[in-house]
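Reopening this ticket.

The earlier resolution said the output was attached, but the attachment link was broken on my side. Pasting everything inline this time so it's all in one place.
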Amino acid sequence: MNYDTALRGYTAKRIEEIDGADILVGIPCYNNENTLAHVIQMVTHGLAKHYKNKRSVIHIADGGSTDDTREVAKEFQIKPWQEKIVSIYRGPGGKGTALRSIFETAERLHVHACAVVDSDLRSITSGWIFYLLDPVLTKGYQFVAPVYLRHKYDGTITNNIVYNLTRSLYGKRIRQPIGGDFAFSRDVAQFYVDQDVWDTDVARYGIDIWMTTNAVTQGFRICQSNLGVKIHDAKDPSEHLGPMFRQVIWTLFSLMENYEEYWKKVRGSEALEIFGYEGTTEPEPVQVDADSMIERFKIGFQQFSSLWKDIFCETCFKEIQKAAEMDGKAFHLSTDAWVRILYELAATFHQWPANRLKLVELVTPLYYARVASFVKQSWKMSSHEAENLVEEQAVKFEKHKDYLLEVWDRKHREQRKKQHAAQ
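Inline output:
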């Protein structure tokens, strides 16, 4: 079914009643009864402290929670001069649809700026509201991406994949392209609403990277804001990140196809202005089981190595094979190998005729190998020191971009030859 709006009738009516606002803060949520009250509290305090003279609305966009999330949202007392909307969105389940409803609300209320924050945050402070909104309200920026002080093992998908690819493809050093907490101007909200993606998988997963990539490719003015420590319901990479890896990779590679002309012309990258929090703190540790990830990689090698041999170049496959033969203590999959693996995978995905999600599934064990390797390498480092490893890796992705272009075009030619031969 096609939904022409993510707003239900009663939500649209509530927006009409409010009529207009300067600021909107959106909170997409699903089964977050334990963390939501704290998030709303910090949002209402932040708006009261920094923007008391502005008309502010808080929109809690729920995905049909089966716990008491909506009750918590309705009962929480915000400041009397602020407005609150609690809604269940319409459309495919997923964060993307929740955000669509927030974009539509921003547009209908004609706000100057909109911020979105995750509903499972335990470390949000009232300062976040200022850090996110101020660059849009006073400095003319149109999209604000977050920067966090994160534990070295929180955000492994960002550290090993998303930051590297976004930076080398699109030329902007956006440290947290899938951060979940960001701000934007009304024209950006309007642009997002108008895109024809709301019935696709982007609306189910991958919305954060879709937003960031579009902000870059459409030429919107982008900056970053440091929010300090991010503590949320963190997940052990060995347990929960397989599905997330598949979703993020699928979205990243699909976007590469949409914006092929754009990224092929980009060389190097530029730093973005950073505002916000200026202190430093060591974040809460995130537990990670490297041995379990190595084990999963080795099982994957036994099952899929013949397919991996077809997908990856000889040098690449040899590196994978070498890692599969290592014991846990000495385990290592080099950064150079990882750069080639991701670039070759992107080119293969581009030519893969059917069931691409299956392809991404088959290579998930390689991601476990890379994360385990990163964990081993950074075991004795502070999170601050591990950040240098992440930077070194990102520079290598940039340096080897010519390899991506070469393999992308080569695989394309090979695929066309196969098609001609089949005819």
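Reporter confirms the inline version is readable. The chain has a mean pLDDT of 94. Strands lie at 23-29, 56-62, 83-88, 113-116, 143-149, 182-185, 222-229, 274-276.
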